[in-house]
């Protein structure tokens, strides 16, 4: 009976290998279908009775639709099937956002800023045409092809993997930085316009559907770059980065061509910034990263990198906080004549969030405080996003009304720059945290090696010399017990985290204040521009709470402090808005946010009192002393 499991395992491996072998051709077949759908959709009208403003638009769109397929085919010709799968996966990561962006033609074609597909010449409500649905179907097919491409790679896991031979940290930093720059350009104004029917607005000033599409693409770019650069497979990494660059170019390049080819339009820095970032992303995929200090130990190489990353994060946070303060104090709207421009009641919340993020950024310049403050900033940055979307709602509402006399003021630009800067600072903080974790793991390994050479391990290694995982600094999945019998994740901490998570969701979903003639945007009612900030705040808070059980006590307390800062600033929007809205009164969201802050304080106390297994082992009472 014993040979049966081995035969079954071998059969399963052969089945997975055969499935992987068939998945890549299937991915290419679906990619060809996606190309045909996108090409046909680009050639046909996207709205009834509409005309495109760019004569060369169809040719350009056809070339951009076929670019990922050409790159993937070139990889296959050169024997790089893994790289080809990465190209299809990389372009598929941007497909959902591009599909949502195209759906703006169904929600309101007159506000779509896509002259290569449709140039509005009136304010009538045109119905969507067949070209739109073919484009959406093409994006869906692109996503399916990416899934099949990843399945082909996952099923072939027994094969050889091309590992990174250079410095992976440098490639990760370069790729993520380039993707962030490209994402910033995507949400900027695509071009300037003198056409009264074509409002050239940035992503935050435009309609909700288009803003959602731009934000999805902008978020997918750095996430895809980070996952690809840290995958450990050089071929897959290169393919994913090239695919993401091809997908981003399909949005940026038409804006540049339209600005140069249509007389009423002018070139704007936004798409130029995007193309520059994508060019660097391509270089990050193709250029081999040099190894610096190859003969030096890992700790000696990474420690200066972590300090530089923390310093860069501090500068970015300080800049984002400064932009938020300027955005809160400068006009969001400008009007013609004697009509006074309305001010956003959320501007004081943006001011408070900017000051907090700026102070945290300045604290990162202090070496002793930087390690403690960085986890706080990794969560607190979203407070700028929550307050910023609420501030921008005033400009979006006023400038989006037909025949309005108001136009965007300088505060709009400063506000969305602050939001993007805060997100960039958060990405830098996350990368710095990953480097810090590697540094601590390396130093812990050196300490353990020293202890093993001169002391009894007290059961930390078994008879075969393998290390017991109970001595790890991280808590893993939170199960099991520590070496000294202390639970890895206390029940009080888990309970407080669960309560805080539920209260935080309700706090972001319900209004913090109410007024007779004012209806606040929320997650479940009146979904508007501020709702995206509330959604981002809820996602970041829940993500931080989920990471607490897997973090070291110091980092866990820092994450919880960041959660408390976000919830406290959200609740503070009530007292900060009392002088701006007549008849304002406290809403249910305020009390839920207040209760969530109390639950976070309980969780932070439990996390501070909890000691990691390594700390318990090194305690003079519970275990051996550290030498």
Q: Which terms summarize this structure?
A:
disordered N terminus, disordered C terminus, 21 helices, 627 residues, 6 strands, two-stranded antiparallel sheet, mainly alpha
Instruction: State the share of residues found in helices, binned by percent.
Output: 55-70%
What is the percentage of strand-forming residues?
under 5%
Give the biggest beta sheet: 2 strands, antiparallel
Cα radius of gyration in angstroms: 27 Å
Give the count of helical stretches: 21
Number of DSSP-assigned strands: 6
H/E topology pattern: HHHHHHHEHHEHHEHHHEHHEHHHEHH
List the helices and strands and how they pair.
Elements: H1 3-43, H2 57-77, H3 81-93, H4 95-102, H5 104-107, H6 130-155, H7 168-187, E1 191-193, H8 208-229, H9 234-261, E2 265-267, H10 269-286, H11 298-329, E3 333-335, H12 347-363, H13 367-380, H14 382-400, E4 406-408, H15 410-454, H16 491-509, E5 513-514, H17 529-547, H18 553-571, H19 573-577, E6 585-586, H20 588-609, H21 613-618
Antiparallel strand pairs: 1-2, 3-4, 5-6
Short description:
The protein is mainly alpha-helical.
Model description:
It contains 21 helices and six strands. The chain is mainly α and 627 residues long. The strands form three sheets. A two-stranded antiparallel ribbon has the order 1-2. Helix 1 (3-43) runs antiparallel to helix 6, helix 9 (234-261) runs antiparallel to helix 10 (269-286) and helix 14 runs antiparallel to helix 17. The longest helix has 45 residues, at 410-454. The two termini are 52 Å apart.
